Amino acid sequence: MEGTIMLWQRLIRPVAPREVPYEVRRREELLEQAQRIAHVGYWERDLRTERITFSDEACRIFGLAPREGTITIEEVTERLHPEDRAIWSSALAHTLRGGSRCDFNYRIVRPDGEVRFVHSQGDLTRDASGRPLSLFGAVQDVTDLKRAEHLTQLVFERSPDAICIIGRDYRYQRVNPVFELISGRSAKDLIGVHVADVLGTTVFEQTVKPKHDRCFEGEEVRYADWFTYPDTRRYISISHSPLHSKSERVEAILSIFHDLTDYSLASDALRSAQAELAHANRVATMGQLTASIAHEVNQPIGAVVMNAQAALRWLGVDPPNLELVRQSLDLIVKDGVRAGEVVSGIRGLLKKAPPRKDSIDINNAVLDVVALTRSEVLKHGLSLQTDLANGLPLVQGDRVQLQQVILNLVMNAVDAMICIADAEELRISTSSDASDRVLVSVRDTGPGVDPNIVDRLFEAFYTTKPEGMGMGLVISSSIIEAHGGRLWVTANEPRGAVFQFSLPAKQNGVSGDGPRQALAA
């Protein structure tokens, strides 16, 4: 009997619940985490009881506490935005009438009053007789996406630039109001229309299509040009950006047209004003050098007179010494050429002409300035030395403008050095750096530059000279920057300042074996 009781006890002993395997729990946790990150929950609607079961994330989306889980259809309806309840009812009714899947967007109102945008889709399950049993689906919070779409729409519609989207068939898919304005057509008259029908076949085939084709290959295309319209000309900056599909294939082009006419005209006016200012600066500088220039011209003219008188004397002897006459005439020619070069250099600096882009040997530009300033330097008891590197690359730019910069730097150095009793040497040197840029340095032995004002030297109207206007370095810096270079100042050792500028070398351009004969003053 006792054995029977023990056997019975073993048979009726409660069985401990089976533990859920770790792997299963881990998958459930990961699924829950994925739903939370993606703002996607799942739901199931029992069509027989009209009860709806929400996952934890679905509860969070609707503003419910997780694990509240099962709610009625009436409670869900209360959460729907009043304007979207018809969307919900219509989508479900359509599915129940014969569909197999519902897919729709709507708004919900959370208990705290916050409105959210959600996207739901679900599959219908039927029994063997075809009677609907349940709906199982997913719900996703797409509020952030909707807001981003709304902002994108606002940017598209309210952009001050003309914007359009063009498909692979070269037809307009979408245009914004500004595009309608500049094209003179409404959106309904543009959507679906071929670009060639708007711009003309010739313009499309020769100009537009090649750029569109590059964009359809995945390239970002940008350019700007003047365009002629019926009543005006406009300078337009255009960008074509590829729009990719999920397969990475470029399906369309986003084109943006930015009107830069006013900017371009203002830039032209600014360049014109800068050119006028630079010319005025050159004239003022040449005015400072009047005595020196007169000396430079008088020297060869005086030599011409002396050699002409000598030639007359040699012709007057009996018999005439024709060899000495020939030598005198050779000297007259050389002195005449020298005087002509001085005058030509002065005319070039004083002449008002548009900027040029020539191939320039910077060493020869330096020597031209040396010739103009030699007498001014000597007048103040100073020495001007040159240290010009051979075989420098050519630079591309305006010779007169670059000479103006060198002239300004030399005259500034002279002004600085005449204030110092023992200042003697002014040196101009040229070289090239590791990146093949050409460097020009003007070294003086004046008082140097106060470190506290270095940054202000290149400000307009800032000057350390009582009679200065404070525009020389500003103009010089703008000229060098316009040539793709940079102008700066450092301290000279043991005393003075070094003003230097660098210029990009012209590709495949190298100067000759050396500059013209360097003259020291």
Automatic annotation (TrEMBL):
Record domain Histidine kinase: where: 292-507
PROSITE patterns hit by this protein: HIS_KIN (PS50109), PAC (PS50113), PAS (PS50112)
Positions in coiled-coil regions: none
Gene Ontology terms, MF aspect: ATP binding; identical protein binding; phosphorelay sensor kinase activity
UniProt entry keywords in alphabetical sequence: ATP-binding, Cell inner membrane, Cell membrane, Kinase, Membrane, Nucleotide-binding, Phosphoprotein, Repeat, Transferase, Transmembrane, Transmembrane helix, Two-component regulatory system
Major location (coarse): membrane
GO cellular-component term (any): plasma membrane
Residue ranges constituting the PAC domain according to the UniProt record: 102-154
Official protein name in the record: histidine kinase
Native species: Bradyrhizobium retamae
